[in-house]
């Protein structure tokens, strides 16, 4: 029987709905999607897609650390963008966060994201 552990940290934005920042089940950690909120203020970071993506990865990193891992443990990354024209800029940021071998990834364009964010990213870790 698998047990699940709820992961929470004040170093990442608090959940803005009925969900947990992450859930650990066995050796797998499911990090909820993060948007570019600054944890201390819960305000959107200023700047464009590069700054937003950097903030999202900072948030995800904090949650991964709270789960006892790091983004180096990522096996799957799901990216939602409001404009696929930003794909190359997001790739640049992702390349600065991850080293080879890279995790699996999906990237889709969506009509809108919470609070007007341009990017939301969720990650699955294997610890």
From TrEMBL:
Coiled coil residues, start to end: none
Instruction: Enumerate the InterPro entries for this protein.
Output: RidA, RidA_CS, RutC-like_sf, YjgF/YER057c/UK114
Organism's domain of life? Bacteria
Task: Provide an example Pfam family for this protein.
Answer: Ribonuc_L-PSP
Stated family: Belongs to the RutC family.
PANTHER family linked to this entry: 2-IMINOBUTANOATE/2-IMINOPROPANOATE DEAMINASE RIDA (PTHR11803), 2-IMINOBUTANOATE_2-IMINOPROPANOATE DEAMINASE (PTHR11803:SF39)
Quote the protein name from its UniProt record. Answer: RidA family protein
Which organism was this protein described from?
A: Spongiibacter thalassae
């Amino acid at each position: 029987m698998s047990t699940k552990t709820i992961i929470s940290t004040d170093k990442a934005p608090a959940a803005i709905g009925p969900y947990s920042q992450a859930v650990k089940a066995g050796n797998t950690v499911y990090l909820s999607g993060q948007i570019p909120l600054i944890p201390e203020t819960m305000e959107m970071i200023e700047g464009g897609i590069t700054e937003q993506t950097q903030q999202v990865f900072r948030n995800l990193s904090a949650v991964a650390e709270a789960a006892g891992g790091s983004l180096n443990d990522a096996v799957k990354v799901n990216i939602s963008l409001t404009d696929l024209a930003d794909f190359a800029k997001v790739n640049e940021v992702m390349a600065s966060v991850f080293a080879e071998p890279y995790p699996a990834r999906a990237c889709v364009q969506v009509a809108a994201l919470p609070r007007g964010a341009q990017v939301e990213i969720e990650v699955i870790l294997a610890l």
